[in-house]
Amino acid sequence: MIFTRLHKFSALSAVILAQLFAPACVAPDCDPADAFCEPLNGYLLYTDPIPTALRIYWVRRNGAQTVARANLDGSAVENLGGTFPGSPNLALVDGPGGFFYYNIDGSMDVRRMRLDGSGDSVFVTDDSAGDPLGLAIDRSRDRLYFWNAAAELRYVSIANGGGQTVLRALTAGQTGGFYSAAEDVIYSAGGTDLRRVSADGATDDLLSNSFTGVLTVIAGGDGTLYVVDFAATQIVRVNRDGSNPQVVLSGFQPGGVAFDSRNNHLYVCDQTNQRIFRANELGGDLTPLVSFEAGYNPIACNLQFTAGGLF
């Protein structure tokens, strides 16, 4: 791993460097656990090219519903609360922005809270009166994407939730995905399909239609994806062109999955066995992290990354 550390420049140099060595953010956003966060004259320079995962977040779907988080080894579990008039759905951690976004089955709202659980409120309401589903961020365009029950991919401003726009109509059943900055496309999944949507909404390419009942898709390492096929009780690793699908985990209901590219670790919400576990990129070396009582049903596993990991 190669990274550059910068020290003791004049005020003018600091500002110039902060502009040249993007991304930069204001000093209060620096997490002490982030070894690659460089305080420099009021700016932070993230000099490590590989994203650093800090914590894992998830949602308890049944019972006393809540947002929770823990260290990557499963220690220091915290219940952060949340407003759940119904069953919480898929969620998203925005480390650089300092927010946790989530939505509720049957609600028209996308809600958000600070990463410590404070400030829980409605961020945006779906203008179609639909049910928002998956969430994704495109920071380069100041966009928070959300999928809805009307089979649309919409976006609003991350800054204030304004400017709601329909990017593209999708095939029925699309429920979630992510934005790939490297490819400048949105990967979208749901039902039997895995799709790739251009950032301008002009194209919508089908990568595969060989799944059973997909919950979402996330980025893996080395040009791969992980497809959470909830109905088939499996997680499938596939190339980004849709080729070479490989079942890496099966035999349980996956409520969500997150990937740490630094260590090639998968973090999995396992609803069948009421736990969160970690595995390697091919599903081996399974390590239980957090266990729950019957009926807890953990979903929406997400990792909090350094800012450098999401730009």
List keywords for this structure.
4-stranded antiparallel sheet, 311 residues, mainly beta, 1 helix, globular, disordered N terminus, Neuraminidase, 2 domains
Query: Could you give the count of β-strands?
Result: 27
- Per the CATH scheme, the topology name of the largest domain is Neuraminidase
Q: Helix/strand-derived class?
A: mainly beta
**Mind telling me the CATH superfamily name of the largest domain?**
TolB, C-terminal domain
* The CATH C-level class name of the largest domain: Mainly Beta
Question: What is the ordering of alpha helices and beta strands?
Answer: HEEEEEEEEEEEEEEEEEEEEEEEEEEE
Q: What is the global morphology? A: globular
How much helicity do the residues have? under 10%
Radius of gyration: 19 Å
How much strand? over 45%
User: How would you sum up the major sheet?
Assistant: 4 strands, antiparallel
Overall CATH architecture of the largest domain: 6 Propeller
Distinct helical segment count: 1
The figure for the number of domains is 2
The average pLDDT score comes to: 81
What is the CA-CA span between the terminal residues?
18 Å
Low-confidence stretches: 1-30, 32-44
Verbal overview:
The protein has 311 residues and is mostly beta strands. The chain has two domains: 11-46, no CATH class; 53-309, 6 Propeller (Neuraminidase), CATH 2.120.10. Helix content is 3%, strand content 50%. It is built from one helix and 27 strands. It has one helix at residues 11-20, and strands at residues 24-26, 37-40, 43-46, 53-60, 66-71, 78-81, 88-94, 99-104, 109-114, 121-125, 132-138, 143-148, 152-157, 165-169, 176-180, 185-190, 193-198, 204-208, 214-219, 224-229, 234-239, 246-250, 254-260, 265-270, 275-280, 287-291, 298-305. Strands 6-5-4-27 form a four-stranded antiparallel β-sheet, with no helix packed on it. The protein has a four-stranded antiparallel β-sheet with strand order 7-8-9-10, with no helix packed on it. Strands 11-12-13-14 form a four-stranded antiparallel β-sheet, with no helix packed on it. It starts with 10 loop residues before the first helix and ends in a 6-residue tail after the last strand.
